[in-house]
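Known limitations

Structure tokens in this collection are predictions and should be treated as such. Users comparing against experimental data should check residue numbering before alignment. To illustrate the layout, the record for DNA gyrase inhibitor YacG is reproduced below. The input appears on top and the generated tokens appear beneath it.
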Amino acid sequence: MPPRSESRRGRCPVCAKPETDAHKPFCSQLCRDRDLLSWLDERYRVPVHSDEEPPAES
Ligand SMILES: [Zn+2]
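Generated tokens:
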């Protein structure tokens, strides 16, 4: 009987630590939030071709 897939444990996609059962596939609530935030950030960072120049630095 093979050992219980100990090595098949996933890793947190955010910080690469071993995932925890409570926060799969992340290691903690913190990483969970971070992943969500980065995901939302990606959405808002949709490339927009604007004709307007960004405001000059002041
Ligand atoms: Zn993590």
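For this record: The first helix runs from residue 29 to 44. The two ends are 69 Å apart (CA to CA). Please report discrepancies through the issue tracker.
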